[in-house]
Amino acid sequence: MTKHFFIDTIVLLGRSLSHITRSLDTILTTVITPIAMMLMFVYVFGGAIRTESDSYVNYLLPGILLITVASGIAYTAFRLFMDMQSGIFERFQSMPIARSSVLWAHVLTSLVANLISLVVVVLVALLMGFRSGAGPLAWLAVTAILILFTLALTWLAVIPGLTAKSVDGASAFSYPLIFLPFLSSAFVPTDTMPGPVRAFAENQPVTSIVNAIRALYTEQPVGADIWIALAWCVGILVIAYVLATITYRRKFS
């Protein structure tokens, strides 16, 4: 059964990836928003914002990376919704394939597409002056956090992709996720915020994830932030996975 699942997932993953390669504008559209934000904040607002970092692009990049992922997972919900509308899911149900492989193919496609988008954003940041002296282990840790974060949000995206009544409804859920980094330490230090906003910013998942990534590539002590970040990512991933699989089973039971 396990071998059957892996083979089916690989085949369906190839199908989903072929759709992306035929419409590379999907990835380009995903990276336009975060890159535009990065350009605007660095070159328009950056001179007026005071942070502990000498380079504002170095301070800003972790939040932009999370916004990139939040933008990208909207397409996962969209692709799932379109497959639901086309009737391909019903066709898959009548075929001798592992049921869960259909969802996993979409999730892994999202992971691949988002990793490509993240690489593009980092390359643009390098052109803008981003520099890091972090070693391979630190960058591996950053990559692991971003993969966990992407998987967590992707499984979250599966739910509206399966249940939405319209295309707009399928992708609209990502808007709050894109906005969340603005209420965190992604753009400015939280100690500059008024009391209630600061309390929310310091205790929501994006702040700990941003702080952990920033500390890793600036070679600063990560402290408890990395464990809090991992706890948030794993917690969201587990809850989203369970809810998504329950929704999928009920939809096609």
From TrEMBL:
Residues 25-251 form the ABC transmembrane type-2 domain. It holds the Pfam family ABC2_membrane. It is a multi-pass membrane protein. The keyword Oxidoreductase does not apply. Signal peptide: none annotated. The chain crosses the membrane at residues 24-45, 57-81, 102-130, 136-158, 170-188, 226-248. It is found in: Cell membrane; Membrane. Keywords: Antibiotic resistance, Cell membrane, Membrane, Transmembrane, Transmembrane helix, Transport. Its main location: membrane. PROSITE patterns: ABC_TM2. Belongs to the ABC-2 integral membrane protein family. PANTHER family: NODULATION PROTEIN J. This is Transport permease protein. It comes from Lentzea sokolovensis.
